[in-house]
Amino acid sequence: MAQQIDRRELLRIGGLSVLTTGLAPTIAAPTNLPASSSQNSCIFILLQGGLSHLDTWDPKPAAVPEIRGDFRHVSTATPGIQFTELMAKSAAISEHLCVVRSMTHKFTNHIAGTYVTLTGSNNQQDRDREAHGDDFPGPGAVLNYLGRRNKSVANLPASISLPNWLSIPGPSNRMPGQYAGFLGSVNDPFLVEGDPAGKDYRPLSLSLPDGVTDNRMGTRMKLMQQLDSSARLLETELNQRVDHLRQSAYDMVVNGTIRKALDLSQEPDSLRDRYGRNRMGQSFLLARRLVEAGVQLISFNEFNQKWDTHGGLVGRYKQIVPEMETAFAALVSDLADRGLLDKTLVINTGEFGRTPKMNGGNGRDHWPNVYSTVLAGGGIRGGMTYGESDSAGGEVLSRPTSPADILATMWHVLGVQATTELRDRLNRPIQLSDGRVLSELLADNA
């Protein structure tokens, strides 16, 4: 007898998850938006916890030891640009990279720093908190709201997050900036959860249950909708959100495009090894496959302050940086080899940097005054740095750049005007971004 699929199972399929952030009324996307002239995609890598710029992208070899740190500097393939020895693979592909060395904002708290990184919004306190319904929406939610789907593939999601939600257990199990906020939770991005390096990784189940064909699944879907119509007593937002999740789960299982993209067994072992057989490496490989499938935004979310190194930084970085750097260099090179890099913007950032001086515990503390964000692809000029930190890596020396500027540039690459109006729950117009598009980084303006 064929396995039965009930409503709860369909919503649960394979770890597909959208987290409720409050039952805000759903706001319809405006209909007078400018048509996109771009089919570009973005892979947004957030190394939550705060990567030290001094020990990676912006070394200070002439500084005193307590600022310079223990890692040697290395020359990149681009004359005049240096990274630390931890970034050797990235140094070899520097022709594809633009390192913004003048990032700055005012928030020292992880959650506040993450929120401004994902939304560009400075309208917040510098403290721990949970996500709520009045938050400014994250990029994936904005794309869902605007209905920016790849029309060549039916029912393809605009955005997917991997492999977990950003979370700090305790102060912020639901970290703000990832969800739809004032756009209503029906626009929350999709999470494909789990460790893609694990042997039991089966996102979306990768197949229908035995004996259930695509047509039969469709018949059951119609029957379930008919049954539900007689029992709809919930409030409007909850109804819409459940319908949305149910239909999306159904689409992503029955439509093989995403299911196939998430099947890493289709990749040669040599390429999987090149990315690294770990959660980060295989997530980056999944991100590339999702770009090929037509998903416009793929977010990689680091979990639980992995990069928060208040003590023992050297030993910790010897463990965690090579894993990230190997995967990042492989991703950029792989996209370039496949002819995808010109239309795929890769953003690699933390929510802030680390203090210029090592502390008593041989670590570095939170430092938003200046830090680095790395861009590659999407029409961004490679083989360059933008902006400077001072000789100690403690303050911006030239071209101060905000997270809102990075986001405005991302929206430009994705074909969305930064002046696009969103509508909150009271139908008030709110501009998508007040950041400046970094036009000097665009290859078209070189």
Structure characterization notes:
With 446 residues, the protein is α/β, with parallel strands linked by helices. The protein has a single domain, classed as Alkaline Phosphatase, subunit A (3-Layer(aba) Sandwich). Helix content is 30%, strand content 14%. The chain is built from twelve helices and 17 strands. The strands form five sheets. It has a nine-stranded mixed sheet, with helices on both faces. Strands 3-4 form a two-stranded antiparallel sheet. Strands 10-11 form a two-stranded antiparallel ribbon. Strand 14 (388-389) and strand 15 (396-398) form a beta hairpin. Helix 10 (279-293) packs parallel to helix 11 (313-337).
Q: Keywords for this structure?
A:
446 residues; alpha/beta; Alkaline Phosphatase, subunit A; 9-stranded mixed beta sheet; two-stranded antiparallel ribbon; 12 helices; 30% helix; 14% strand; disordered N terminus
How do the helices and strands line up, and which of them pair or pack?
Blueprint: H1 7-12, E1 16-17, E2 41-46, H2 65-68, E3 73-75, E4 82-84, H3 88-92, E5 97-103, H4 110-119, H5 139-146, E6 159-162, E7 190-192, H6 214-229, H7 236-254, H8 256-261, H9 269-275, H10 279-293, E8 297-301, H11 313-337, E9 344-349, E10 353-354, E11 366-367, E12 371-376, E13 384-386, E14 388-389, E15 396-398, H12 403-413, E16 421-423, E17 429-431
Helix pairs in contact: 10-11
Measured between the Cα atoms of the first and last residue, the distance is 64 Å
CATH topology: Alkaline Phosphatase, subunit A
Mean pLDDT: 85
Poorly predicted segments: 1-37, 206-210, 229-236
The proportion of residues forming helix, as a percent range, comes to: 25-40%
Largest sheet: 9 strands, mixed
SSE pattern, N- to C-terminal: HEEHEEHEHHEEHHHHHEHEEEEEEEHEE
Percentage of residues in strands? 5-15%
